[in-house]
Every structure is written in structure tokens, then in C-alpha cells.
Amino acid sequence: MIIEVTGLVKKYKDYTAVNGVNLSINEGEIFGLLGPNGAGKSTTMNTLLGLLRVNDGTVKMFGKDFSKHAREIKRSVGYVPQDYAFFETLSAIDNVMYWGKLYGLRGEKLDKAVQEALEFTGLWDRRKGIAKTFSGGMKRRLNIACAIVHKPRILFMDEPTVGIDPQSRNNILESIKIMNQNGMTIIYTTHYMEEIEVICERVAIMDFGKVIALGSIEELIDSISTGNRLSLELVSNTETAVSVIEKTDGVTACNNINGVLDIHLEKNERSLTVLLENLIQNEYEIKSMTMEKPNLETVFLQLTGKKLRD
């Protein structure tokens, strides 16, 4: 394990923001940290980075206690915050140079590292451009360049794609995959559920300062009771069909939304078959039907009672 967190607690007077968090993160994985606003994920990330002092618990990275080896550990850790971590009035190259020097790089080693960081993020041709003139996507890429100039083994990323267009978002996600393929361990938070589904191998879901679920996306989906969801349109008699469907074994909910039936099924292979047989038996004719399988959003909603962006 490259990161081991045991019994982590962070309090602010009478408020407990992080309450006994345990995490084990494997070297070389992309690990997602999800939770509604106020769940404690940002506080957890800040304590792992050493930006906040913990009240209880231990954090180990590379097998070493963070509280005893913080300076050594931080040399191998990078952080991409949600806010911009560069100077708006400096050029891209000067910003990355600044961060490289903070991490102790000098001379040819610094020059090479800065060039590689800017080339990787697609900013080398704009290296002399002033940061404040950059587009939102370019600023997000500059944020990443500043965080990876020292080639960290662990990279924390907090909402790295917020406020940018889909193309820029996809470019950043591809960059994250490449960094991971090159051996970097990445801890990732976002409000975009689809990003987690695309890049993360395992996910921890937090609520009220605790980890309430942890595993691969497939494991998390298998852990919930919610089954498939149907959108069903009948040729006629939609209103009377609602009560028939609600009484069908394996149906947990049925709502008529502007003539389209929104049906939730139990996680049971027979649920759909029983429903269709019941409709045919009661002489209801189906006009159209689409089925949606449970996904990470379904898991999140069932566990927290909220949507991620609430």
C-alpha cells in the first residue's frame, strides 16, 4: 500500500469533519473520493497532504509515518487544487519554474523538468504566454504542470476539470490516464460522476465524515439493492396500468411522468419477465421501452440520499 490511513479524525471545536476514516490505497491506482458537499472529502484530502493537523489517527505514505517524515514524503507528492495555484501575472514557464525551484530542482535538471511538464500538458508552445490571458482549459492544464514538474509518485487532484469545456475535460482525463500508466498513483475528487466511472479503479464514498462504501465500481453496484430502471410507454390506459404495475412482484416503484412510466425493479433476474408477463396478461400494449442499469450515480443516491451535484 502506498497510502495507509487509520482512524483519521479531524475536529473543529464541536464539529467533527472527519470521523474515523480508514483507507488503503494501492500503488499505481487511480482512487476516487466521492461525497456530497460537507461529507468531509476535502478535509480528508487536506489532512493527507499535511495542510491540516489531525486530532487522531495515523497517515502513512511509502510505509512512513507522515507526522514523522513529512518533509521527505512531500518531495514525492503533488497537489492540483480546485483553485489556481499559479501567479496570473507570470508566464506559464515562469510559473512552472517557480514550483520546480520550490521542490529543489536547479540548473539543467530544472530546465528539463519544466519543459517536460509543459510539453506533457500541451503548453510548451504557449510557455511565454501570461497566465491571465489563458482560457479556462489552459489554466487547468497549467495547474497540472505546476503540480507534476517534480515528477511526484502520488498526485492529489481536487476538481481538476471544474468550469471547462468538454474537449478540455477529455484532454485532461487522457493526461491523467497517461500519468497513471507511467506509474503515478492518483487520488481524485470531482462532481462529475462520469469522470470517476471512466478513470477510477476504486472509489470511496464519504458522508458525514465517514467512509460509507469502498470498492471497485462493479463491487459498489453489486452491493446495493436497486435493480434496473424502466421507462415504459403504453399505447393506452396508462393511468390504470400504474396500480397494476405497483402490485407486481419485483417492482419497487412506479410513477407516471407525462405519460411515461418510470419503473424501478428489484435486483432480481425475474423482475422484468414477471412485469412483462403481467402487462400482457392484463392486455396492456407496449409502445416503447428503454432500460437503464444501475450505475455509480444509483449507488451514490441510495447510500447518501443525494445526487453528487446537490
List its traits.
310 residues, alpha/beta, Rossmann fold, Alpha-Beta Plaits, six-stranded mixed sheet, four-stranded antiparallel sheet, 11 helices, elongated
What is this entry, summarized?
The chain is α/β, with parallel strands linked by helices and 310 residues long.
N→C terminal distance? 33 Å
Q: Biggest sheet: strands side by side, in what order?
A: 6-7-8-3-9-10
CATH A-level architecture of the largest domain: 3-Layer(aba) Sandwich
The major β-sheet equals:
6 strands, mixed
The level-1 CATH class of the largest domain: Alpha Beta
Query: Any idea what the shape is?
Result: elongated
Q: Helix fraction?
A: 25-40%
- Count of DSSP-assigned helices: 11
Count every beta strand, where a strand is a DSSP E run of 2 or more residues.
14
Q: What structural class results from the helix and strand content?
A: alpha/beta
Describe the protein.
The protein has 310 residues and is α/β, with parallel strands linked by helices. The chain has two domains: 3-221, P-loop containing nucleotide triphosphate hydrolases (Rossmann fold, 3-Layer(aba) Sandwich); 226-293, Alpha-Beta Plaits. Helix content is 37%, strand content 29%. It has eleven helices and 14 strands. It has helices at 41-48, 66-74, 92-102, 107-120, 136-148, 166-181, 193-199, 217-223, 238-246, 271-281, 296-304; strands spanning 3-12, 15-25, 30-34, 56-61, 64-65, 77-80, 154-158, 185-189, 202-207, 210-215, 226-234, 251-257, 260-266, 286-292. A six-stranded mixed β-sheet has the order 6-7-8-3-9-10, with helices on both faces. A four-stranded antiparallel β-sheet has the order 2-1-4-5. Helix 3 (92-102) packs parallel to helix 5 (136-148). The two termini are 33 Å apart.
